Request: fold
Amino acid sequence: VQFVESGGGLVQPGGSLRLSCVASGFAFSMYTMRWYRQATGEEREWVATINGRGVTYYADSVKGRFTISRDNAKNTVYLQMNSLKSEDTALYYCNINPVPPWGQGTQVTVSS
Reply:
């Protein structure tokens, strides 16, 4: 099982980013996928979930601003992040569940 996240960067408050995560080593379309994030000095936290049928769930802190989606043909899950805030600054990861293995993550920094 492997996850490769990308799409992070430095963005001003109110800006947008789209993260991607390519998964391999398992039957992607059959699994619920999740995004997590970890800010410096904080514990990793759940951000969003999408199941195999496309049903989505969000943490209250990102609801209405972030959108999770997936492309099963590409074994890829996405996280569209709009109206970014400084508190969204973190290393973002995708996974099936919050257990190893983890990818390298992609850094999102929201700062003016």
